[in-house]
Specification:
- There is one protein chain.
- By secondary structure, this protein is an alpha+beta fold.
- The chain has 3 helices and 8 strands.
- The strands form 2 sheets. The protein has a 4-stranded antiparallel sheet. Strands 5-6-7-8 form a 4-stranded antiparallel sheet.
- Helix 2 packs antiparallel against helix 3.
- The radius of gyration is 14 Å and the shape is globular.
- The N and C termini lie close together (9 Å).
């Protein structure tokens, strides 16, 4: 399972999702792990994120609102190291992907941002919604 937001050579790729249902049932918010890869201009980075499955569902719902121009931004946060991705979109469909990704043990960090447009958001949203349903 994967979801990718790509504009030209720039991208954010979420993949290798692992949901731990038993941890979720016990109330552990660290119940879904996945990989994140970023390429923004000449810079690239990767990290491993931990989230509560409900945060992934909320992100899908809020992204649908973003795509429909009912909100201006959405954000997904990593519980482990504090990495995040934020998508903002103006009223004309110009999208901005930005965030920070930390590597293992926070030894490396990449702050990124790149411009995209609403057309790439549609595909990313569709793949994210499928991914969440499969967890």
């Amino acid at each position: 399972m994967k979801a990718e937001l790509r504009q030209g050579e720039n991208f954010v790729l979420f993949s290798d999702f692992r949901h731990y249902a038993q941890d979720e049932a016990m109330g552990n918010l660290y119940n879904t792990a996945f990989s994140v890869q970023i390429r923004s201009g000449m810079f690239a980075g990767a990290g491993r994120w931990m989230c509560d499955r409900s945060a992934l569902i909320t992100f899908a719902e809020e992204m649908a609102d973003l795509y429909a121009f009912r909100r201006e931004s959405v954000r997904l946060d990593d519980l482990e190291y504090g990495s995040y991705m934020e998508l903002t979109m103006d009223k004309t469909g110009h999208l901005r992907a930005a965030g920070t990704v930390y590597g293992s043990a926070m030894e490396q960090v990449l702050q990124y941002h790149f411009a995209a447009d609403q057309t790439v958001l549609r595909e990313f949203l569709a793949s994210w919604q499928k991914l969440v349903l499969a967890l």
